[in-house]
Amino acid sequence: MLLITGATGQLGSAIIDRLLQQLPATQITGLVRDEQKAAALRVKGVRVCLGSYDDVASLDHAMQGIDKVLLIAGTNEERRLQQHQNVVDAAKKAGVQWLGYTSRTLKDRTTMANQLMQGHFQTEDAIKASGLPYSLFRNVLYLDAVPQFVGAKVFETGIYLPAGQGKVPFALRRELGEAIANVLAADTLAKPIYQLTGSESYSFADVAAALTDLAGKPVRYTAAEVPAFEQGLRARGLPEVVAGRIIGFMTDIKNGQEDDVSPDLTQLLGRPPATLYAGLQELYQL
Q: What pTM does this model have?
């Protein structure tokens, strides 16, 4: 019996859709916060438990009879660590046999610019300290996030980001979900750590070149300097905290924090993951 937290989110949905191709729906439970969003899971035959990472009683209820738990990282950055600890504690209390967690591929926690990512490393520490058998799915930055980073008018204005020539082995969210589901559904013993990345690293200059080819018109990448870039974000009315997050992501990319290619995703999919070109073609429907 499997419990997937965050079951109606984009990653959770991708994981469950893949699991339903391999396992009976009766073996899958989804933890969800919203009754209306839960309806789609119920139609598929998935058992639904209403609750949240803050509601310990709901976590205890959801864990009953569960063998494997996948903790999908929460989005409440201020409470993330405590919320994750609540899930770990509930899993240990219920005697689950294995706990998975969707972490990140960042190389060095001591030199990260984006301090919001520390919560992932701290959660990994908590899981290791729990004594539970575990797997950490260290996911690369989603290729799906590229349109958000480059902006809606990328074909008119080009790409202007302070990422230097830093590279990322981007991967599509749906393929990461498929790979994680394959581990959940398998009878074999899971590895403690999976580095889930694309099979090649790309810079935003490469992104610009791919978009140029796909759209048939030039898209230029300009490696911005942080002060000018930050000033532009503020001129657009972005709150300081949001601007800081964006700059943190870009600085880590520039410094090579994301540039770590692993064969794990290819092995779990049984095929090479989508290339940058193919992924952008899908995302932009070009």
A: 0.95
